[in-house]
Amino acid sequence: MNHPPHHEPDRPHDLVGIGIGPLNLSLAALAHPLTDLHTVFYEQHPTFDWHPGLLIDGATIQVPFLADLVTLADPTSPWTFLNYLKARERLFPFYFAEHFHIQRAEYDAYCRWVSDHLPTLRFGHQVDAVRWNSERDLFEVDFTQLDTDGEAEALGRTHTRNVVLGIGTEPYVPEPLTPLVDTPAVPVVHAADYLDHRDTLLTAGHVTVIGSGQSGAEIFLDLLRHRPAGHERLHWLGRTEAFAPMEYSKLGLEHFTPDYTRYFHALPEGVRDRLVTAQWQLHKGIEATTIAAIHDELYRRSLHGGWPDAVLTPGVRVRTAGRIATTKVELHLEHIQQNTRSRLTTDAVVLATGYRERPLDRVLAGLDPYLRRDSSERPRVDEQFRLVLDPSVTGSVYVQNAARHSHGVGTPDLGLAAWRSATILNTLTDHAPYPLPTRTAFTTFGLEPHPHVPPARQAPRTLTPLVDRR
Fold first, then answer.
1. What is the DSSP letter of 1?
2. How far apart are the C-alpha atoms of 308 and 312, rounded to whole Å?
3. In the prediction, which pLDDT does 89 show?
4. Mean per-residue pLDDT for 79-89?
5. What pLDDT is attached to residue 309?
6. What is the CA radius of gyration of the chain?
7. Residue 451: its pLDDT value, please?
8. Which of 145, 209, 322, 394 sits in a 20 to 30 Å window from 103, CA-based?
9. Sheet of 152-160: strands edge to edge?
10. Is the distance from CB of 406 to CB of 262 less than 8 angstroms?
11. Cα distances (angstroms) measured from residue 154 to each of 2, 357, 361, 364
């Protein structure tokens, strides 16, 4: 490839975003009306693309529709979900549907609508490197412009005062299961690619779903509903001690507030690490409605006698896995509580084993000498979501969904997207364009009182007569 480097206009950007998922899309939407802020966002995919393999019919997102890209920071924004419905002339149908949690496919369509209207987004642009230019006091961002087939078309470089990384997560396959990925004759797919292989899985003789989180539950339910009664031939395995519901009590949900995020960030590193592991049920459990739907479907299939040919076993880990001949997979299982072992032969496997944060090292290799790390060699992140850099670097690198170790379980949560985006934008401008609440939870996390919280206003003693609106 001999294309000369393509340079964007000489004026440096105030902010360059890398990756356009929901979190950076939120940032771009809230930055859009700030005309004094010069921004651009790069994404290697040709269009907005949000977990297409998991847009199962009927599957909902796990946060209310108010947790859209902007509402919790600016409900008057033109990029709210409600304004999307209005633009599509679907506001009244949504009103009568009374759905607080919308379908994933609808959330994806909403995000695509926003991305189609924001002029600062550059799809088909792969960021290759970020460096600090000490002579210009600017970051250099090198990128490759891709054609419609994903092939390199031109090289480019731009300069910016600040960078925000929103490169998201990638499918995770635990080490004992990695041999399964190399079994092309047997359908072994990660949940992220489920819909692409659904027809093959529905016709497979026996299917095993591994993973006891929401994705595993949704995929098991979808397979169960579409395989013949009495001949389901399904196994669902999970490491957790039970197919447990996600913590969804109102006070439990306050772990996904700015208040808790600030509290968590101030804790010692070792305490934070222990909490992230212990709080799995806050974000890795299964929605109670999905659990109910699975039980209802299993019960319906038992109405005329007999039990469905479906085995649901929690508390199981896969020790090793491999092929039998070329058409089957053998899983070596261990029951954790019983300390017993067995083998399971299956014709197809769905790995609902979750996602992991994409490592930042590739994109940030040029900044490695400036990065400050914690005792586990992870990048340190300050309270405003900025990587802690050497003081000689006068610009900032912000991170989205890459700081669970420093900001807790709410890091990937869509409900905090608008607040985090507003926090970032407020640090970039002389005036805070998005005033944020000083208190967001009834719970006080720790012995220190909430800072800068004004006293509650006393209700008036005079009662206002009720108006009959009938």
1. -
2. 11
3. 97
4. 98
5. 97
6. 25
7. 55
8. 209
9. 5-7, 152-160, 138-146, 125-133
10. no
11. 9, 29, 24, 21
- Cα separation, 111 vs 417, in Å, equals 13
What's the confidence (pLDDT) of residue 294? 97
> In sequence order, which residues have a C-beta less than 8 Å from that of residue 421 and are 6 or more positions away?
23, 26, 27, 29, 30, 31, 70, 73
126, 146 Cβ separation under 8 angstroms: yes
Average pLDDT over residues 316-327: 88
Cα(98)–Cα(93) distance, rounded to whole angstroms?
A: 9
Q: Which residues pair with 274 in a beta bridge?
A: none
Contact 306, 229 (CB under 8 A): no
- CA dist., res. 18 & res. 24, Å (int): 8
Average model confidence (pLDDT) across the chain: 91
Give the strand pairing for 169-171 and 328-335. unpaired
* Bridge partners, residue 131, by sequence: 140
For residue 140, give the nearest of 164, 168, 162, 155 by alpha carbon: 162
CB 64 within 8 A of CB 256: no
DSSP string over 222-237: HHHHHS-TT---EEEE
Give the model's confidence band at 2: pLDDT under 50 very low, under 70 low, under 90 confident, else very high.
Answer: very low
**Burial track 158-184 (b if 16+ CB lie within 10 A, e otherwise):** bbbbbbbbbbbbeeebeeebeebeebe
What single-letter amino acid sits at 268? P
- Is 346's pLDDT higher than 80? yes
pLDDT at 362: 86
What digits encode the pLDDT tens for the residues 351-376?
A: 999 999 888 888 899 999 999 999 99
Inter-residue contact 34 to 397 (CB < 8 Å): no
Beta strands in 270-388 (DSSP E): 310-313, 316-324, 328-335, 340-346, 348-351, 355-357
Give the 3-state secondary structure of residue 26. helix
**In this predicted structure, what is the pLDDT of residue 327?**
84
DSSP assigned state of 118: -
Contact 436, 426 (CB under 8 A): yes
Compute the average pLDDT of residues 139-151: 94
Average pLDDT for 135-153: 94
The predicted pLDDT at position 10 comes to 66
Contact 297, 224 (CB under 8 A): yes
Q: Is the pLDDT of residue 461 over 70?
A: no
Asked if residue 178 has pLDDT above 90, the reply is: no
Max CA distance (Å), the chain: 82
Amino acid letter at 406?
A: S
Listed in sequence order, the DSSP H helices in 118-257 are 178-181, 198-203, 214-226
Other Cβ atoms less than 10 A from the Cβ of 117: the count is: 13
Write down the residue that tokens 């992870």 correspond to: 378
Name the β-bridge partners of 9.
none
